[in-house]
Amino acid sequence: MKSDTPEELNTNPADQEISRLIDEVISSSQTDEKYRQKMQRRKEVQDQRIAKAIPEKGLIIVNTGHGKGKTTAALGMVLRSLGHGHKVAIVQFIKGAWEPAEKRAFSHWENQLEFHAMGEGFTWETQDRDRDLDKAAAAWEKSLEFINNPDFKLVLLDEINIALKLGYLQVQEVLAGLAQKPADKHVILTGRGAPPALIEKADLVTEMTLVKHPFKDQGVKAQAGIEY
Prior knowledge:
By secondary structure, the protein is an alpha/beta fold. It contains eleven helices and six strands.
């Protein structure tokens, strides 16, 4: 997937104005009054953007890319949503052969959270494509229950992008399911290799970029609290 450069990302005039004001503050020696004036201008620009913003809506959120942190970022949103008292559902498409630590941590919110780890591990561990297909189909059926249930504010489909990439699920099937969600429901889809059609449909897409990795670069094995 093509990554936008900072220049390409910063095409909104309001964003450009804010960036210009920040650059001026950083690059020049400012008196207290000039600093106050520039920050006031920045506040005015930001307030104008907020005033023009559309009402709240349920978002389709995609965390993809080869870097670490896709699930971790999604779990942060889960924690935030739980903190607001919302009901949340997590369906994990690959994990399941072991109990992830996050499931134990989230047990404190058992009245708000449904957690289903429905995979059987990495594909090179299972070595059974038909069984992987069945597991992915079952996980998707469970996901649809939560997507269609208006009681759940947030649904996390962890590593569903991998299931899509491997052909265990069809992207059109997933898009059709997402189209059924209530207007105020948020759905997060994680995993590398998110298909272009899903990225096009999403409201928020973040691509995690791999810069360094302890296993790849140093041979450090997965560690409790970091990878699982």
